[in-house]
Design the sequence.
C-alpha cells in the first residue's frame, strides 16, 4: 500500500492546486462586499429548490441548526433571502431566495460561464475535449464518494 500512499500524496497536492485555481476563478465572479463564502454557499444551495426549512439548509451545508439560524438571519437582513410562514403549518417557516439573491446568482453564473469560455478559447479542440472529459470523470468520482459518505 506504500505505492498508494505516494499516489494519494501526489493527488492531494494536485487537487489542492487545481481547486485553488478554480476558486480564484469563482471568487472573481462571486465578488460581493457583503457576502461571505458560507453565505454564498447557502444561496447556491437554496437555488436548487423553491423553498427550504432551516433544518434543510443546516443539513445541506453540514452545519448545526444554531449556526444555520444565524447565517439565515444575516441573509434575511441583507435582503438575499425571504422568510415566509408556511400557510399549511404556521409553526414552520419557509425560506426562499429573494429577487436580489436570484439576480446575484444569475450574474455569478454568467460570469463563471464567461470565465470558462475564455479559458476554453485558449485551448486546442483536443485539450478542450480532454478537459471536458476530465471534469465529467471527476464529477462521477465525487458522486461515488458522496454515496459512500451517505452510507456511513
Sequence:
Amino acid at each position: 500500500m506504500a505505492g498508494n500512499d505516494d499516489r494519494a500524496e501526489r493527488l492531494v497536492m494536485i487537487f489542492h492546486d487545481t481547486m485553488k485555481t478554480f476558486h480564484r476563478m469563482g471568487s472573481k465572479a462571486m465578488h460581493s462586499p457583503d457576502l461571505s463564502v458560507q453565505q454564498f454557499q447557502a444561496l447556491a444551495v437554496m437555488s436548487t429548490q423553491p423553498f427550504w426549512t432551516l433544518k434543510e439548509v443546516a443539513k445541506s451545508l453540514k452545519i448545526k441548526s444554531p449556526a444555520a439560524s444565524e447565517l439565515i438571519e444575516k441573509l434575511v437582513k441583507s435582503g438575499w433571502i425571504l422568510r415566509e410562514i408556511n400557510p399549511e403549518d404556521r409553526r414552520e417557516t419557509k425560506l426562499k431566495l429573494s429577487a436580489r439573491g436570484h439576480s446575484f446568482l444569475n450574474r455569478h453564473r454568467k460570469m463563471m460561464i464567461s470565465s470558462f469560455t475564455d479559458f476554453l478559447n485558449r485551448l486546442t479542440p483536443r485539450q478542450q475535449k480532454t478537459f471536458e472529459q476530465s471534469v465529467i470523470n471527476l464529477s462521477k468520482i465525487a458522486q461515488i464518494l458522496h454515496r459512500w459518505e451517505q452510507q456511513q
